Amino acid sequence: MNQEYCQISVENLTEQSLKDWLKQQAQIYQLPYLLAHAEDGVIWGNFDIDSGTLTTAREVFPECNFPELRLKTLEQCRVFGEAGEVLLWNSNGEWRSRLILQSKVLELIAQQKIGLIPEPQILWGTQGKNHGNFTLLSDGSQGLKHAVPIAVEQSYFSKDKNDLYRPVRLEVNHYFCYDSDGVARIFFSRLVSLKKEKIS
After folding, report:
1. What pLDDT, in 10s, does the model give residues 115-136?
2. DSSP secondary structure string for all residues of 31-65
3. Phi/psi of residue 157, nearest 5 degrees
4. Full strand arrangement of the beta sheet holding 94-101
């Protein structure tokens, strides 16, 4: 993909400006979800596109003591949705970012310059508890907990505690192209959405 629509300027990012920068990206590109990886764990969040408000799992479920979104512990962060993805990451102490817009990707697919492999990744969580737009997921086999920014009704979970069905999916798109030898390779991937799927 061309550099002109893949790079976003990240200058003088501070602890105070991090959330404002992320909210700005979410509003500009209409991206409702946040997934961050920090030194102390995974951070899920949800943006209200109209107001620019960011709500994290830590705020919704304070009793779980989920990690806080902080620049000093942040490794990488994705703001994503159907319209695209903004990736922010730390490279040797310097913050970098990348933008992938779905509209641009569709143009390249239409021109047959790239191909698409969609992958629904199954997330941990055999049981869930709703609170607003978040669902606290716990896993029957491991006891792991995380809170995803999607409301998942109880009907999606098995009533049998021994059934390890996990209904939440993280939709990921992988994009590939062919090199001069005709070998296909994935050259980037992006997060698209969160989905829920009932037991068939």
Report:
1. 999 999 999 999 999 999 999 9
2. --EEEEEETTEEEEEEE-TTT--EEEHHHH-GGG-
3. -100, 150
4. 54-56, 41-47, 33-38, 74-81, 84-91, 94-101
